[in-house]
Amino acid sequence: xxxxxxxxxxxxxxxxxxxxxxASEVALALDAIRDxxxxxxxxVTELTRALVFHSQQAGSKTLHLPGCEVVxxxxxxxxxxxxEELYVELVAAGMAEHRAGEVVVETVTRRVSVREADRxxxxxxxxxxxxxxxxxxxxxxxxxxxxxxx
Length: 150
Known about the structure:
This protein is mainly α. It has 2 domains: 1-60; 80-136, no CATH class. It is built from 5 helices and 4 strands; from the N terminus they run E-E-H-E-E-H-H-H-H. A two-stranded antiparallel ribbon has the order 1-2.
């Protein structure tokens, strides 16, 4: 650990002081805080359900309550199945193709397969140069899986 970084943490919600120099203590605290987060997430879900109930009783997704205002979002929504068939049926029913294209919007998404990019780059130095010129490093957040022995 670097000198300018704290070597201890008071774990919120638990109050335990954890020394970063003790890997076992850090792992157990991480497990405990994840358990607390799970409990809090469940409480958030239940409290949100209660607010949805009150919202439905009031007939509004905005609740003006003493000391606060609650605005709910989400809830029932429509999802379309077989979008291509929807387009075909609309055109077959007489809808102009340009209008059907406004209803069923075509979207093209591309992604890079890192494995295939590496294989292509390994096969041809020109491909490697092109592929490498389009890369930029990103920092991904570290994750730690903790399995507590009980």
